[in-house]
Amino acid sequence: MTYVVTDNCRGCRYTECVTVCPVECFHVDDAMTYIDPENCIDCGGCAPACPVGAIEPDYRLPADKKFWIDVNRKRAAETPVLSARLPPLPGADERRQALGR
Amino acid sequence: MTAPAESARRVAIVGSGPSGFYTTEALLRSGTAVAVDMFERLPVPYGLVRFGVAPDHPKLKQVTTAFDRIAAMPGFRFIGGVAVGDDVTVDELREAYDAVVLATGAELSRALDIPGEALPGSHSAGDFVAWYNGHPDFRDRQLDFDHEAAIVIGHGNVALDVARILAKTADELRQTDITRHALEALAESRIRTVYVVGRGGPAQAKFTAKELRDFLELSACDPSVEGRDVAADEFEPRRPDDPELAEKLSLLRTFSQAATTKPRRCVFRFGLSPVAINGRGRLETISFRDRSGTVENIACGLSFSSVGRRTAPVAGVPYDAHRGVHANIDGRVAIGDSLLEGLYACGWSKRGPSGTIGTNRGCGIATAEAVLADLAHRRPRSDSPDALLARLSSRVARIVSYPDWTTVDAAEKRRGALLGKPREKFVTIPDMLAAMDA
Does residue B435 form part of some domain? Predict the structure, then answer.
């Protein structure tokens, strides 16, 4: 198994996940973060740390979100490792509130 | 091991578990010229990753590759086999270093504080975990598995680790890095029923769904839930937007409905508070009070309490008895409001035993920020790390370096390979030291 970043990260990109990842397996682009499934050790630390609930274990994803498993694998291979937090994207707090979080 | 630059600030980290390594990483990446000496009581590093993480969770142990990467950063030295508090005092460290960071974890198991807790057969879960993981201090614990039933008290992930190790067959454990003495003892186990007993209901249990899922995969044990403990609506999540809680309750409901056909059972019990441990000369039953006030006695020959841990006090460091940690304000050690200059805490010895391995990374970053902010106005040291280490070399058998550990690590892996295991640990300090020169 692995953990997977899903669509709720888009538009916020809080990156709290990066601080708590013990193996630096988060990658990043302008829109969101991605988990490298080859390096994730399934510790589960990132999922509760995400302010918008964007991270789930792969097996728990509903059918319409399973495609994020491949997106994470592919984008993690194409993007740099993020080893320290970034400021959230503009409008992140408004988006979080709109999500009811 | 390269000598740190003359101008570098010197930091001592006490403890080599996750929080010690992550605080080190944050200091060495800070851009400030800092050198870190990591003190460890044992000749081997990694703390609870070696002595706590269950042997059948090998993926989690891969985090040690991150620790090895940190240990390879310029400015890092491992100083193993030196017990702070015994071989060297905290005050000596404070004289020799610009900052001292306590990363000593939460070694002590909390007691149930009920009558009979000292009876033979009644153990703390932490001692059992340290025993099967080969901690030298626990190698000689006598554990008797010649009983039909065991009780684990507590509903956290450690309780589940203990229950799962008891529920697994020797064949399920043989190819893990469980130590040989534990595997041999568990192979003779007669335990057929493991009760996992907690005070709260299903929604209050602290264990995670991921750990609970492991119970679906056991070859010789069926998980179940005692039906009379739980009302049907307690399996319905009150917060529908919490997938973790929903999965946990769904798993417990599945356990409650499944037929039991395998030779062993793991029975989850809810709403029961322990009131006494009973027996003539050794553990025979444990009394629990249910939510209606009725007392129920459950027979067992073995029990493991898993109701929390606290930090072991260190001489020269103020202790917060209420929280069970080194007294600190956001990582700066303090007596009341008054800070002890140059002394810090991180990880479980700062904030208590909670979170996953990675939680200590965030925690270590925060403590490192406090250290770095204070370094600018730290008074000059009256001693030097090298003078201190020279004195220490006459006080201890051997000051263990990281390359020494790497030699032990390779030897353990070779021993394991012969047995089809990832490693066979050395479980005594003399054996660890001997492996360094073999």
Answer: no
CATH number of the domain encompassing residue B274:
3.50.50.60
For residue A2, give the 3-state DSSP assignment.
Answer: coil
Whole-angstrom CA distances from B229 to A9, B163, B167, B256, B298 are 40, 19, 22, 11, 14
Q: What is the pLDDT of residues B371-424, one digit of tens each?
A: 999 998 888 899 999 999 999 999 999 999 999 999 999 999 999 999 999 999
Q: What architecture does CATH give domain A3-80?
A: 2-Layer Sandwich (3.30)
Contact yes or no for B365 and A19 at CB 8 A: yes
Chain A residues inside the 8 Å CB shell of B360: 22
> Is B337 a domain residue?
yes
Reduced to 3 states, what is the DSSP secondary structure of residue B80? strand
What is the predicted pLDDT for the residue at B302? 98
Domain coordinates of chain A in residue numbers? 3-80
Whether residue A43 and residue B357 make contact (CB cut-off 8 A), yes or no, is yes
| Dihedral angle of Cα B80, B82, B85, B87, to the nearest 10 degrees | -170
Residue A81 token pair? 């490792």
A48–B243 C-beta distance less than 8 A:
no
| C-beta of residue B284 within 8 angstroms of C-beta of residue B277 | no
Final residue belonging to a domain, choices B261, B278, B307 = B307
Measure the CA–CA gap between B435 and B51, rounded to whole angstroms: 19
From B401's Cα to the closest Cα of chain A, the distance in A is 23
Whether B358 sits inside 8 A of A47 (CB atoms) is no
Same domain (yes/no): B198, B326: no
Query: Cβ(A24)–Cβ(A1) under 8 Å?
Result: no
Q: Is a pLDDT exceeding 80 seen at residue B434?
A: yes
Report the complex ipTM. 0.93
Is B298 in contact with B153 (CB distance < 8 Å)? no
Whether the CB of B247 is below 8 Å from some CB of chain A: the reply is yes
Do B262 and B335 have their domain in common?
A: no
Under the phi-then-psi rule, with left for phi > 0, alpha for psi from -120 to 50, and beta for the rest, what region is B236?
A: beta
Cβ neighbourhood burial of B387 (10 Å; 0-12, 13-18, 19+)? exposed
Q: Are residues B44 and B148 in the same domain?
A: no
At how many degrees (to 10) do helices B125-132 and B157-167 cross?
50
Q: Distance between CA A69 and CA A74 in Å, rounded?
A: 9
Q: pLDDT tens for residues B191-241?
A: 999 999 999 999 999 999 999 999 999 999 999 999 999 998 999 988 778
| H-helix or E-strand spanning residue B392 | helix B385-392
* Cα separation, B83 vs B392, whole angstroms: 10
Do B64 and B202 belong to one domain?
no
Nearest to A77 by CA among A50, A39, A46: A39
The reply to whether B319 and B293 lie within a common domain is no
